[in-house]
Design brief:
mainly beta; Jelly Rolls
Length: 149
């Protein structure tokens, strides 16, 4: 699936472009804007969900926490981001995102440039096999890191 055409307009609160809603390993992602230079998506991380450490070699990523608190692994260091905070993730910096708070976390994520992230979310929507998610992610320029060992 290709992203919807980039046009002037308003994406209503709580909705994804063209009604798109992705289930990514128990998290809800809704694309709210997409063009060649940027891709933004609303997220809901239920308690206990996470994105394991990974790298975006071709994109800078940003996270504006809207509600709740993330525990982050940023370049090997633990950090916390709460409602109102902005997380900055330059391309190539390993990072993981964890909801250990016991409450849902809502956030607006965006990447620049958009590259293949919209395609990735379309392809992994509804998958339950983490190994398959990791394999597909590598074809879309997101590289998951091996577990520490």
């Amino acid at each position: 699936m290709e992203p919807p055409a980039f046009t002037a307009g308003v994406t209503p609160a709580g909705q994804g472009l063209d009604g798109i809603v992705w289930n990514i390993l128990g998290q809800t992602y809704k694309p709210v804007a997409c063009c060649e230079s940027s891709f933004a998506f609303d997220t809901l991380f239920p308690p206990g969900t996470f994105v394991p450490p990974h790298i975006h070699p071709t994109q800078d990523e940003f996270i504006r926490v809207l509600e709740g608190e993330y525990e982050l692994l940023l370049d090997g260091q633990v950090a916390y981001a709460r409602a109102g905070d902005l997380v900055r993730l330059p391309r190539g910096v390993p990072h993981g995102i964890f909801n250990k708070s016991g409450k849902p976390v809502r956030a607006l994520f965006w990447v620049s440039p958009a590259r293949k992230l919209f395609e990735l979310f379309t392809r992994i929507h509804g998958l339950s096999d983490p190994a398959e998610v990791v394999r597909i992610s590598a074809t879309c320029e997101v590289d998951f890191l091996p577990p520490p060992g």
